[in-house]
C-alpha cells in the first residue's frame, strides 16, 4: 500500500529589502515636494525685468483735478473742443521694485504688456529716487521744449539761454566754470538765443583740441579757455547744460505725478489749439505721443503698444505715431480699432489733425502695415 505523498505547500517568498514596491511612494512624495518647491521658487523669484502696461490718459484740452491741464496767458486765446490726449505708460518693476517670474510670464502671454530688461533703461546702481528725479526733470524739460516748438510753428519769436547746470569733478571745467554760468559763445560761434545752442556746443567740443568759451557770470562777461579731455572715445569739458527759455506767452502745466518726455508733441498741439482760432480737432477725439525738439522734430518713445491700448480704451479715433514707432504701433493688438497716422514733425501732426477734423482721411500719412520706414499716403 502506498502512502499518499504529502501535499506541497507553497513557500512564502523571502522578504526583499529595498525593492521598488516599498520605495516608490517615498520617491514619488519627495519628487512631488521638490516639484512644488521649484514651482514656488519660479513664481516668487525676482527677475531683472520691468513690465510696461497702459497708464493713465490725460486730455490736454481739459481739466485735471479741477484745474486746466494747460493754461495760456499773455496772448489772446480761443475756445477748443474735442480731445487731444497725452498717453502714459505705467511701469511695474525697475530700480527698487521687484517683479516675479510669474508676472513676467503672464505679461508675455496676455500680449498687452511688454517685458523689458531693467538694464536696458537703467544702470545697475540706479535707485528709485534717481528714477523719480529723472522723470520729473524730463517732464519739466519737455514742457519748455513743447512751448518752444509751438512758438516756432506759429512763427512767434522767443529766446533761449544755455547755461551750466553742473560741473563734473576732476574734469577740465572744474574750477573754471560754475553752475549758473550763461554760455554766450564757443570758439567765436554765438550760443545765446540760439535754439540749437546745445548742439552747436557739443559739435564744437568734439571737433577741436581747445575751447574758448564766452560766458556771463553775475552780470559780467568772461572768457574761459579749456582743453577737452577724452572720455569713452569722446571729447568732453565736463559740464552738463540746461536751456532757459523766454517766451512771449506764459504757459502753465498741471501734470503732477507724470514724468518723462513723451508728451511733448501733444502739449505743443494743445498750446497751438488754444492760441489759434477754431477747434483744431473739430470736436473729435485724438490721441498720440512723441518726444519733440525745439525745431518741431518728433522723436520715438517707449511703450507705444501700451499707448495704443490706452487710446482705444478711452475711445480715441485717431492715433498720432512717431515714424520710428510705426512697427510697434502696427503690431499692437488694438491698432485695427483706430486710425493710425505717422508723424515726423509738429507740422505733420497739426496738419494731420486738421485734415482728420475736416473728414479728409484719404491722404493722411500712415504707418505701413508691415511697419517699414516709408512715407506711404492714404488709408
Supply the key terms.
2 domains, Pdz3 Domain, disordered N terminus, Ribosomal Protein S5, domain 2, six-stranded mixed β-sheet, six-stranded antiparallel β-sheet, 379 residues, serine-type endopeptidase activity, alpha+beta
Describe this protein's structure.
- The chain is an alpha+beta fold.
- It folds into two domains: 49-155 and 249-357, 2-Layer Sandwich (Ribosomal Protein S5, domain 2), CATH 3.30.230; 159-246, Roll (Pdz3 Domain).
- Helices cover 29% and strands 27% of the residues.
- It has helices spanning 20-44, 101-110, 128-153, 197-206, 264-275, 304-313, 326-331, 346-357; strands spanning 46-47, 49-59, 63-64, 67-68, 70-73, 83-93, 99-100, 114-117, 159-167, 182-186, 189-190, 211-217, 220-226, 229-231, 234-236, 239-246, 250-253, 285-288, 291-292, 298-299, 318-322, 339-343.
- A six-stranded mixed beta sheet has the order 8-2-6-18-21-22. Strands 9, 10, 11, 12, 13 and 16 form a six-stranded antiparallel beta sheet that branches. A two-stranded antiparallel sheet has the order 1-7.
- Strand 14 and strand 15 (234-236) form a beta hairpin.
- Helix 3 (128-153) runs parallel beside helix 5 (264-275).
- Keywords: Membrane, Transmembrane, Transmembrane helix.
